[in-house]
Amino acid sequence: MEHRERTKQNLTSYEELYLLITLLGKKEDLRKFLEDVLTQRELENIHKRILAAFLLGKGYTFEAIRDTLGIGTQKVVNVKHILDRGNGGYRLVFERLPSIKVETLYKDYPWLSPPFSHPLSLFGMLHGLAKPAQKETITK
Q: What is the pTM of this model?
């Protein structure tokens, strides 16, 4: 099969996946789906990439992020590359995060474990409840 055909086939498969995810609608249904199709390690890796992107956006150094999240520097570099040259997906999510109120998270999503003071809680970081590793000056 020619490369272009394989790429087109992959895009079609991805489009089906995106559609399936949007059809789920409810967050609880999405959680069930993702826990069935992804391993615990894959879920953790996705979560850590999202946290790395968030911390990069807040000005944390690669080293501080690496130490806080326990991930390799190369993974942080890869996330930074996507932030700079990707499709803007991380930014879409981060733009919508402030609209989420911590108080309503417990009520709307009772399966979440309060409090959000864990250092790897995105909502905790956003609302100042979690304290990631010390922020260092970024050298360019």
A: 0.70
